[in-house]
Design a protein that fits this description.
64 residues; mainly alpha
């Protein structure tokens, strides 16, 4: 438990970045009419993929 106090200042920014990425990706997914693949599958990738999921969607999932 002592290590948690030391790691917390490092973990908080990472958690914030992860949450922001998820929100941005989900917002983009909701607003976009067409994607490469079904939207429900992208929701799973974004939410369950932690930090990598939103990045994968933003790079590969959007159909321009």
């Amino acid at each position: 438990m002592d290590n948690l106090g030391e790691l917390l200042p490092l973990l908080i920014p990472l958690i914030i970045v992860q949450i922001v990425l998820i929100v941005i990706a989900l917002r983009d997914l909701i607003r976009r009419e067409r994607t490469k693949g079904p939207k429900w599958a992208w929701v799973l990738v974004i939410v369950l993929g932690q930090t990598i999921g939103p990045i994968v969607y933003l790079l590969l999932g959007r159909e321009e």
